[in-house]
Amino acid sequence: MRLRNKPWAREKINAYPQYITPQPEGAKGRWNEIFGNDNPIHIEVGTGKGQFVTGMAKQNPHINYIGIEMYESVIITALDRLIEADLPNLKLLDVDGAELINYFEKGEVSRVYLNFSDPWPKTRHAKRRLTYKTFLSLYESIMPDEGEIHFKTDNQGLFEFSLKSFSEYGMLLNFVSLDLHNSGYEGNVMTEYEEKFSAKGQRIYRSEAKFQPRT
Ligand code: SAM
């Protein structure tokens, strides 16, 4: 599903099919062909204005990145960044991350990034959190056996919930930091929200979790 909220945003998106893949259902199973190489594909769900995914694509030219953002009025800022940077290894998708299965084949995506996902703090909204078990199952369905989820947030409650969710799903935690910016971790690419929250003195939490082969 595409959320159409600003006609001018739609027009701009339509003008750049080389960056925001039109009719992405038709790209399912063809992403390596679209990128023109066999490099791994990493996606960010909820890419916002695209600072992270653009920075990652610049830093890692041998990885293909796809930034997924469901609001057209937001993704056009990411589009502006991409137009300026003109990176061959980055595409954007204006779709709902809850429908990833429509756009990717099993094994097509080797890593999912979730950065500062909406926390949905009310218990009755837990199913909307992008680390809820139904979302983990969705990510697993488009990744190889040992696909990874790399997650950052400033929200302690969401971080605690997510670690429990990864663990209950049977994922292996390879990395956990309760204070990323003071952890000595190198190569961090900041997101917009990360810059905003860390400037206010908030701690940034980060984890890497890996799916385990089903026996
Ligand atoms: N990742 C960016 C950052 O760290 O600066 C943006 C964080 S912002 C809090 C969360 C973003 O995720 C919003 O732009 C929102 O529209 C997007 N989002 C939330 N749920 C989504 C979904 N199911 N599919 C695609 N985008 C989604």
Automatic annotation (TrEMBL):
Ligand binding (S-adenosyl-L-methionine): 44, 69, 96, 118
Record keyword Methyltransferase present: yes
An annotated GO cellular component: tRNA methyltransferase complex
Binding site for substrate: 122, 154, 191-194
Catalytic activity: guanosine(46) in tRNA + S-adenosyl-L-methionine = N(7)-methylguanosine(46) in tRNA + S-adenosyl-L-homocysteine
S-adenosyl-L-methionine is among the record's keywords: yes
UniProtKB keywords: Methyltransferase, S-adenosyl-L-methionine, Transferase, tRNA processing
EC number: 2.1.1.33
InterPro entries: SAM-dependent_MTases_sf (IPR029063), tRNA_(Gua-N-7)_MeTrfase_Trmb (IPR003358), tRNA_methyltr_TrmB_bact (IPR055361)
Main EC class the enzyme belongs to: transferase
Classification via SUPFAM superfamilies: S-adenosyl-L-methionine-dependent methyltransferases
Pathway(s) it belongs to: tRNA modification; N(7)-methylguanine-tRNA biosynthesis
GO molecular function: tRNA (guanine(46)-N7)-methyltransferase activity
Entry-linked Pfam families: Methyltransf_4
Function of the protein: Catalyzes the formation of N(7)-methylguanine at position 46 (m7G46) in tRNA.
Family: Belongs to the class I-like SAM-binding methyltransferase superfamily. TrmB family.
HAMAP family associated with the record: tRNA_methyltr_TrmB
PANTHER family with a match to the protein in the record: 3-DEOXY-D-MANNO-OCTULOSONIC-ACID TRANSFERASE/TRNA GUANINE-N 7 - -METHYLTRANSFERASE, PENTACOTRIPEPTIDE-REPEAT REGION OF PRORP DOMAIN-CONTAINING PROTEIN
Protein name: tRNA (guanine-N(7)-)-methyltransferase
